[in-house]
Amino acid sequence: MKLKLQGKKAAVTGASSGIGRASALRLAKEGADVALIARNRERLEEVASLIRTEGRRAVVIEADVTDAEGVKTAVGEAIKELGGLDIFHCNAGIYLRCPAKDLRMDQIRKVMEVDYFGCLNCVYAVLPYFLAQKSGSIVTTCSMDGKKGVPPDAAYVGAKFAMNGFFQVLRQELRGSGVHVGIIYPSRMDTPQIAHVDCPKITPKGDPDTVAKAVVRSVVKKKKELMVPSFSCHLLTWADAISPSFSDWLVRVNRLSGDENGVEPINEAK
Ligand SMILES: NC(=O)c1ccc[n+]([C@@H]2O[C@H](COP(=O)([O-])OP(=O)(O)OC[C@H]3O[C@@H](n4cnc5c(N)ncnc54)[C@H](OP(=O)(O)O)[C@@H]3O)[C@@H](O)[C@H]2O)c1
Question: pLDDT-based confidence at 261, cuts 50/70/90?
């Protein structure tokens, strides 16, 4: 059976944990060689060895997405080591829970620096290469927080709304260039990022592999936007279009609990 991504070459940021790790493993399962980008080399090596047991190539590249030059070097290394690049999954990100009234500007800037500008550093590093070869997929992990504001996530929501807007424009401007842009909007996924908070029983945390499968689907079918899980996320966006009061209520009854007094963004390489 022919694999969906046989012979393709992919790079994933935030591949050392959670959704990025699941995405790297899934892309490899579908036949791609993968460059794994994040700061924690040890965890990246672990993912790389799993990929190699699948018979795919895995390249470990240590980089901080907030460092534009470092990201350019990382993308160059991925292209050189893999012998080209077809897929770039912009995924690295951090999360901060803190009521808007208590946020400090340095906290907001830090989230923006990683989640928004970090992602743009990747886009500007890989886009010239994809435009020159007239093909390639840039897929980003946004969030349902990039479609509907959810308390107490104001800093994170701001960064994800910015990312959503940027990628929607990028996708339209790149129409006809051969470069595909896909945006994935996960709801809550069972990853270390939200391990410290609990979900209501009716909306449990999802398996990060469901997001990884959406990444593959976006690449293969050239999907512009995918929400995960589809039904409940569509329900929320429809509710929001009809009545913001109704969608505010939906968000309130489904809210995450725990750790609501504000913490420093978890962004130290561990
Ligand atoms: N979990 C959810 O419920 C959920 C829902 C919607 C969207 N998302 C989004 O999905 C993406 C992945 O989140 P996750 O849940 O998988 O979180 P996670 O398990 O905490 O993983 C985050 C990844 O980002 C990397 N990272 C963080 N800061 C970085 C930096 N400055 N430079 C390079 N890499 C950095 C981390 O690697 P190192 O520490 O090794 O650098 C790690 O691999 C994020 O963009 C997040 O906002 C998550």
Answer: low
